[in-house]
Amino acid sequence: MTRLTTHSLTSFLSLSLTNQNSSMDFTADQLLQYNGADPSKPIDVAIKGRVFDVSTGKSFYGPGGSHVMFAGKDASRALAKMSKNDEDISCSLHGLPEKEIGVLDDWENKFEAMHPVVGCVVS
Known about the structure:
Residues 26-122 form the Cytochrome b5 heme-binding domain. With 123 residues, the chain is α+β, with helices and mostly antiparallel strands.
């Protein structure tokens, strides 16, 4: 018979809560809260509706970083176009040529290798 200790129960509950939170649904407004402005919250960027925790890249995505414009947003179109222009920061892939879709796929693969997926963007 296995004895359940307070420590093992706490560890189990902590792991369970972590796993639940690893697949959150975000609206666009909710995602915006994870733009790096609040240092107590992680920094998130979405690609093709999948939300990545990019907090380890705080120097890039946090305040003053070279990619701060993507933080708290779905940056799919901008990444596909290799653009930092505000008008390109969008989830819309409409009208993108195949070459730019390929660029976006490469970005998605890089993000998957470097950052955990924490959820998805919902309408």
